[in-house]
Amino acid sequence: MKDLTKAEEQVMQIVWEYDQLFIKEIVDKMPEPKPAYNTVGTFLKILESKGFVTRTKLGNTFSYSSAIEKKAYTRKSMNGLLSNYFEGSAEKLFSFMVQEKKLNMEQVEDLMKKLKDDE
After folding, report:
1. Which of 2, 64, 91, 109 has its CA 20 to 30 A from that of 19?
2. Which parts of the chain are coiled coil (predicted)?
């Protein structure tokens, strides 16, 4: 599975949220300032070549659907993040999140409870 650029990932987040979309619908769901229709079309062609979306011809246009589940891409991205920035250690990632105040003690305790429940 290839990596996505920030712009490609922005398009994929919308595609993942819905089953099937036309380019105009994707553009409408994008934040301001909205990219041009042709720009989104170009990203979708790239995403199709990377295997992330499939397209189906409907009349004179195409609809786009996800070919890769969001969870699979998330797993790949998180594994890359762990290996590239935290020496493969989830503990180092967790520690970083606490130090950066991205997790408070209540959240840490909740995560600990979930870990214990999964055992």
Report:
1. 2
2. none
pLDDT tens sequence across 68-81: 999 999 999 999 99
In the chain, where the domains are located: 6-66, 86-118
Q: 6-66: what CATH class? A: mainly alpha
Give the chain's largest Cα–Cα span.
55
CA 38 vs CA 8, 49, 59, 77, 96: distances in Å: 14, 17, 19, 28, 40
Q: Are 4 and 52 in contact (CB under 8 A)?
A: yes
Who contacts 110 (Cβ-Cβ below 8 Å, separation ≥6)?
none
Model confidence, pTM: 0.82
pLDDT in tens, 98-109: 899 888 889 888
Q: Determine the 3-state secondary structure of 23 from DSSP.
A: helix
Q: Are the beta carbons of 64 and 55 closer than 8 angstroms?
A: yes
Around Cβ 112, how many Cβ atoms within 10 Å? 10
